[in-house]
Amino acid sequence: MRIYCAGKWEEKERVRVVQDILIDDGHTITFDWTRAEEAPPEGEPRARVLREHALNDCWGVMLSDLYVGLFEKDLHYRGTFAEMGIAIGCGKPCIIIGPFAKRGVFSYHPLVVAWFTDIEEFRRHRVYKYGGEVKIKEVG
Known about the structure:
This protein is an alpha/beta fold. It has helices at about 10-25, 45-60, 80-90, 120-125, and strands spanning about 1-5, 30, 65-70, 95, 110-115. The protein contains 4 helices and 5 strands.
C-alpha cells in the first residue's frame, strides 16, 4: 500500500519511526518530507523551499492509498491538518496517532478509520494492513 505520513517538522524523528514500521511491513511511503531541505529563515529562498515542500506534500498525499497523521504533542498542526483535508477530499482513509488531533473538526470525519493514543498502540494493532477493506468514496 502507498502511504503518506504527516506530522510537525519538530516531530520528524517520530514520523520516521512510523514510516519505518510501515516500510518493514512492505508498504511504500509516497513522499518522505522528513528528509527534505529545511527552509531558510526568510526571503525568497525560504519562499522557494516552502513552495517546493507544499507541492511535494500535496502530491505525496494525492498519490497515497492511506494517510497517517502523527499528533503526539501539544503543537499547532496546521500543515498536518491541511494534508489530512487533502486526503479526505480525495476520498482516502486516514489514521490518526496521538491525542492532539481532537482540535480539528476533520479528525471526526467518517474517513478517519482508526485513532491510536501513541505509536506503540499503532504498532500493536497494525490496522493499516487492512486498508483495502475500507470503503472509500468514489472521486470522480
